Amino acid sequence: MTTRQWQSIIVQLERILGSDGVVKRKEELLTYECDGLPQYRQRPALVTLPRTTQQVAEIVKICNKHKIPWVARGAGTGLSGGALPVEDCILIVTARMRQILAIDLENQRVVVQPGVINNWVTQAVSGAGFYYAPDPSSQIICSIGGNVAENSGGVHCLKYGVTTNHVLGLTIVTGEGEIVKTGGMVSEMPLFDLTGLFVGSEGTLGIATEIVLKILKRPESVGVILADFNSIEEAGSAVAGIIQAGIIPAGMEMMDNFSINAVEDVVATDCYPRDAQAILLVELDGLQVEVEAYKEKVAEICRRCGARSITSASDEATRMKLWKGRKAAFAAMGKISPNYFVQDGVVPRSKLPQVLAEINRLSEKYGFPIANVFHAGDGNLHPLILYDQSVEGAFAKVEELGGEILKLCVRMGGSISGEHGIGSDKKCYMTEMFTEVDLETQQYVRRCFNPYGLANPGKIFPTPPTCGETANAGRSQFKGAFAF
Ligand SMILES: Cc1cc2nc3c(=O)[nH]c(=O)nc-3n(C[C@H](O)[C@H](O)[C@H](O)COP(=O)(O)OP(=O)(O)OC[C@H]3O[C@@H](n4cnc5c(N)ncnc54)[C@H](O)[C@@H]3O)c2cc1C
Q1: How far is the CA of 399 from the centre of ligand 1 (A)?
Q2: Both 370 and 396 in a single domain?
Q3: Is this model's pTM higher than 0.85 or not?
Q4: Strand 216-217 relative to strand 130-131: parallel, antiparallel, unpaired?
Q5: Which of 6, 221, 251, 301 could disulfide-link to 241, CB 3.0 to 4.6 Å?
Q6: Residue 182 Cα to ligand 1 middle (Å)
Q7: Which of 88, 49, 84, 89 is nearest to 70 (CA)?
């Protein structure tokens, strides 16, 4: 497109959004050139900041008319490059769509615009004793629209399910610019489950502009157990033992020795023994009698599996203290290493010790330390590969190592994504899990919603299906036809 054509597009967009609704200066566009995976960067041609569904639909129609690719963006905390701009694209950022539109406590639902921050929902209803269950660790900054697109998980998803289990209905703007309502205000609706289809589609089917969420009543009581072990195997057998005993904790998280020391160096909880090879954090919630009984049972299982010490907490201040290190784990890595790359895979939880031993072997082979933090109950691993970006070629090796870990997860009967999505980062590993026919079947669906292929192109699907064409093929080479 020529500069003149872009200028005409800006005029059209400003007519819809006002001049402060279009970001066009080169230095301002820098903010949007990556998401939470900063290794991949591409500056967008323009950024738009709509406030309403209608405005989103009009932007999409302009994009279609001029064949301009567009990418939805919430808070930009995604860790798989889902909101990474593509060359010469328009970003549709939901940062001004931040209204909580309705709160219906009687029927336990809340209607929000997509830019609403995850934990604002809980804040809005906590006074009445309710909360919104899906709680990614990024919940103080990530948006509900991003959660919907990634089908985000979190610590409490072991018991309460991931985002898809808490979304009743959506208003979406499709790739054609049509406004469509899916689902509704109740969970049982006739016709195809388009809400379920849209959740987890990573911005490739359209953009969610209104979301109906289910909220839950706060449990009467919450307790946390911290157990430390001499080996990952012992901690892993405690996880299996707890589930086999029929206990479904609200959350069950594990950290290895490397992570324990990293968080103690940075946030000094003084709760995690530095010489432990693994710690297990188990949160139990429900009626008070139930929580008390389960706490005893969990402690007993942990002891039987070799726990060296057990700390139990019911009051909020001590619970927060026990969780503090786990919550700060990613940030702690940033403090002890110039760069880190977080992977996200899933294995059957019984395979955790075996997979961790193999990850340690890969860490030695490639020469990069790896800290492991994981949602143990779900078998969802987050290996954090530490490296120095300024060393030439380091990131290419880190990407290769990350790929080895994902392939290992698949070999063990797991998946290449637990909760962070596929985005740009992992699309080349999709063929490890899916056949060509599987992928083509998914593409049929994508084409129904996104017939021109302009909504978040180049994401999720391997095109071409090789790892030679990485997410970052055009890294930092802004060839945008237009930038002030
Ligand atoms: C420190 C840290 C901890 C994290 N912990 C977790 C965790 O525990 N669990 C977890 O699941 N994730 C976690 N994440 C990842 C991330 O926060 C989630 O994926 C989150 O849902 C992304 O929301 P966002 O608003 O930042 O989305 P963005 O990064 O802006 O976008 C993510 C994807 O959603 C699409 N999108 C955004 N808005 C819309 C919309 N309205 N309609 C359609 N598509 C849209 C984008 O195109 C993109 O593909 C963590 C991230 C960080 C940085």
Answers
A1: 21
A2: yes
A3: yes
A4: antiparallel
A5: 301
A6: 21
A7: 89
